[in-house]
Design a protein that fits this description.
mainly beta, Hypothetical Protein Aq_1857, Chain: A, three-stranded mixed beta sheet
Length: 108
């Protein structure tokens, strides 16, 4: 399994984690949602469950549940910031076969 962060994403995540006392890393996952099947889930990880896998990339711990692993294998997570109103994570996922028109969900 391979999940990568760009340097921009890693820097942003480290800043976010520094504001959270209990966070040990970033939790990445998927959930059934939207018109094409799945949506990404991003949250602080305050612990590791028995069905989680932990990756470390660019000094950031990434916690991923086992069900999401096949959907996220090969993912590159980036963070873009054109201005204060237009910033956020970008998911470059080689497994995605289709996305919905609004870009909120994907299918593999």
């Amino acid at each position: 399994m391979n999940i990568q962060l760009t340097e921009n994403a890693a820097q942003h995540i480290r800043k976010m984690l520094a504001t959270q006392d209990d966070a040990i890393g970033l939790r990445l996952g998927t959930k059934k949602s939207g018109c094409t099947g799945f949506a990404y889930v991003v949250d602080y990880a305050d612990g590791v469950n028995e069905h989680d896998r932990v990756f470390e990339n660019r000094g950031v711990k990434l916690v991923v549940d086992e069900e999401s692993l096949p959907l996220l294998d090969g993912l590159e997570l980036d963070f873009t910031s054109n201005n204060l109103l237009n910033q956020g994570f970008e998911f470059h996922n080689p497994n995605v076969k289709d996305t919905c028109g609004c870009g909120e969900s994907f299918n593999v």
